[in-house]
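Predict the 3D structure for this chain.
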Amino acid sequence: MKHLGERDLARIRKILVIQLGPFGDGLLTTSYFETLKQRLPQAQIWYVIKEPYDIVVRDHPFIDNLITIRPRKRLQYVLERLRTIRRIRSEKFDLVIDQQNMPSSQHLTLLSGAKYRLGYEDGRLWFAYNLRAGRGALRYSASRKFDILGPLGIAEGPYRLYFGVRPEAEEDIRRWLERQRLDPGKIIVFSPGSPVPRKQWSLANYAALADLVQTRTDFRVVILWAPAELADAETVRSRMQSQAILAPPTDLHQGAALLKRCRMLVCNDGGINHLAVTTGTETLAIFGNTDPVVWSPASVFAHHHHLYSPEFKPGTDSTFGVSAEAAFAEVLIILGKRDEPR
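Done. Predicted structure below.
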């Protein structure tokens, strides 16, 4: 692996990181931005990402500028990519870091005009790079992002993930909680929906767990949902014996504001699990068809927890080998309570 020396590093004034999407990876890639800024304080950090994924990195404290790519099809797609390439070339970046490692990002890297083009050595178009990084041991995905910095002599260190919740979103949620007469310290948020069906824990189990929470503790359950997840949220509520509260329609900022004000989140493996890293929310994620070693923040952040049954055979059923009772026992441990009726 070729490394840049101190003299070369000192000449870097402008860095572009490429991660076109989706939401989760757009957020996770920023794990090393603070470390990169500390190592190269003279350099600006730019980020290129597709819309609408850019919402997760706007107002990021260590991103100096964004280049966004608008979603287009057919000829308009080609024209949008040409516009992006012209923009990148016009900014005269010293270093491009291709975190995406896909043909679409490799083309942008190759045509960037940057002196240093950094990517993974296992990339399909590896010749796009004149600096190549190997991949380290399997671990939480945000931590693995540091692997690409090897040629810069930068190793993984302590890090945070950032998402700037807008003040108006905080106020919207504060008012909603007040109208519902909910005490933030006594709320557990459930997020049962998922854009990836194979990652979704059984809705029946979510309903049973919500009933256990509401009948055996003094916590209330609020069901959070994205626009495409309303049917799942309503299914969970309809299957419950007790009465859960459906969250209002929320955007990403309002959803994060609700996470900041609740006691705990229960969710699937997915973007909201990583968003909860930024809000410091105590979280229990249920894993089944994905590897928690790579996708669970629990190995890095103490306020994150997950349940995973090694005996579960992926694709067999949506319970993932985790019962509602087992999840409730874990919830009680996280809350520091004993399993006893009120």
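The chain has two domains: 6-152, 167-335.
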